[in-house]
Design a protein that fits this description.
The chain has ten helices and eight strands. The chain is of the alpha/beta class. The strands form two sheets. It has a four-stranded mixed β-sheet. The longest helix has 18 residues. The radius of gyration is 19 Å and the shape is elongated.
Length: about 220
């Protein structure tokens, strides 16, 4: 319980998640859309994850993730957060906690610059994947492309100093969850679900044909 409270108090917005949880991805995406950059703690990748999960349940979070804290206070799980967003309370909570600020001209310019950086990177080569080093789905998509004879350019945004802003830019471009985000010939194909659907339908290989090297 002490570790949970300590982590929850270190940043204005904190989300406890699991890497495989789709609702966790949705709540993170909502916070990014609102302009917040929450601290994200993935319990399935933390040695103390089981104990932290029990502590979150003791706080009333059921299921245990996503568990959201704003200004050090427990807000609730996905259902509670979505309700607060629908009635307009969530954004004001984030502003009051200084998790977000009213958008200024300089903020807007920064967003455009990071969008431009993403677009420059996707133009480097025919097949580009934005990923995170700890993401198992990113790894799976990379392996799929390699098995199909393609060596994509892989940008790990958790190792990029502009990673948070690039993550927001990818979400604004239509990515459901920022990684893995796959681009072919400069066009956004999508994330894991879209790539796998294209592969199963037989549509992926024709898209990759110009970039395959089976030697």
């Amino acid at each position: 319980m002490d570790r949970v409270r300590d982590l929850a108090s270190k940043k204005a917005a904190v989300i406890f998640t699991k890497s495989s949880c789709c609702m966790c991805h949705s709540i993170k995406a909502l916070f990014y859309e609102l302009g917040a950059s929450p601290a994200v703690h993935e319990l399935d990748m933390d040695a103390s994850g089981r104990e932290m999960e029990r502590a979150l349940r003791a706080l009333g979070c059921n299921p245990s993730v996503p568990a959201v804290f704003v200004g050090g206070k427990f807000i609730g799980s996905a259902k509670d957060v979505i309700s607060l967003h629908v009635d307009g309370s969530l954004k004001q909570m984030l502003i009051d906690a200084k998790a977000i600020w009213h958008i200024r001209c300089t903020d807007f310019v920064l967003q455009i610059l990071k969008m431009d950086k993403v677009m420059r990177l996707v133009s480097e080569k025919g097949v580009v994947i934005f990923s995170k080093s700890s993401c198992c789905l990113c790894y799976a998509v990379n392996i799929l492309f390699q098995e199909l004879g393609v060596k994509p350019i892989n940008h790990e945004i958790d190792k990029d100093p502009d990673g948070r802003e690039m993550e927001k830019a990818l979400i604004r471009m239509g990515c459901n969850g920022p990684v893995p985000a796959v681009f072919i010939d400069g066009k956004l194909i999508g994330s894991t679900n879209e790539v796998m659907s294209l592969h199963l339908s037989g549509s992926l290989i024709p898209l990759l044909k110009p970039y395959r090297s089976l030697s």
